[in-house]
Amino acid sequence: MADIKKIKTALISVFHKDGLDEMLSLLNEHGVKFLSTGGTKTFIESLGYNCESVENLTGYPSILGGRVKTLHPKVFGGILNRRENEGDQAQISQYEIPEIDLVVVDLYPFEDTVASGAPEADIIEKIDIGGISLIRAAAKNFNDVVIVASKHQYAPLCEVIKKNNDAVTSLEDRRFFAKEAFGVSSAYDSAIFNYFDKDNESAVRISFNGATHLRYGENPHQKGKFFGKFEDMFTQLHGKEISYNNLLDIDAAVNLISEFTEPTFAILKHNNACGIATRGTILEAWKDALAGDPVSAFGGVLITNGEIDAATAEEVNKIFFEVVIAPSYTKEALDILEQKKNRIILVQKQNTLPTVQFRSILNGVLKQDKDLYKESIADLKQVTEKAVTPEQAEDLLFANKVVKHSKSNAIVLAKGKQLYASGIGQTSRVDALRQAIEKAKSFNFDLEGAVMASDAFFPFADCVEIAHKAGITAVIQPGGSIRDNDSVEYCNKNGIAMVMTGIRHFKH
Prior knowledge:
Helix 18 links the parallel strand 21 and strand 22.
């Protein structure tokens, strides 16, 4: 077949050599000639294979401190010549340019160097010139040339060679490797651009590797994919394939639990907490989190910041849920939780979450800093004659963490570091409050002495009035309304304590 090409000569120059030996063995077995530079040439020869130096081919040594090694017509002519083009073939014959059928090259670790905090001079030296040029040249001429642009492609090439029982590739094979190579080069260039553009933010250049095909998107008629490295965040111990909606809830759960250091358990549905409690033990936290809304907990996502033991697992196992996340599990706990075949069990790894977030909108993208502000006692500005008690202050901060991660407009009612109820995603703050009150009553919570948190200011005094009549005794809100004083005056007249933080936590 015309699209089948034999690999006769391979140019190999890589930083990462793990896994390279298998590929070299297979290529050598099928008579492929090796061409290389520096350390890679030494590595190839250490395995007992003959290897011609690029310097011997070009007639030039590596110069400018290694900045120029492969940038030569005899190298790029060997890669870019079109095998069926008579003019190209005449020229490479005239200038004695050998054909290069396979290019194996990776790039200097630019991103790793930036992340290490290295000085700028070292970072600039990690901007690859020869490597990126070789990648683009070989990928452009995929009709004739195979390009392996990262260590992650060593194994796929080995699979192709084994499958064919020869060092031959199809056009489909070469097009695949070219696609992968352009993925490498585009990600690399994006990283370099972002380094230079960091203070200007004149454009968005984002690169995510590792596409995961999902069963569907939010609904069955929508296609869905996840681009990211899920395995860097979690280890999945058990259960079915994770869905699009699972991922949304998992993200919300991880962000919520990150607010808490004491033993805490949370239950989420549709990106909102329907139950959460902080207690002395994880088991106690679970029981009181579930009490917040045992109905909504059905089919939810569970997350905790402590190890799940057998006793906790026994209680958790009594309800149906989709996902459970914890930093660790005892063996006995896993034996219990794994009784349900499809239940997704995740171990959350220690890592740092991104500090920015993006959202597609209209014909573009919105970017903003993530809402990472965490209020403390020092942020609570007393605005009423009645001061909050230490116990109320703790409850207010607890409620404020929950409302921060609830869809706006949002109201949270809490007591004793337990979510009593929330009103979420409403078009008015009054509606959100009334929803929360009615929900709390439906689960027999006594709101007398409870606290209220609001994600934004109260435009009128109606919310504090409704809350007071329901038994609420302390309020936390950001403030900022031109009528803040109306709410303050009502609180003063009715013995309610209120603090303002100055920080709004809208979550649209």
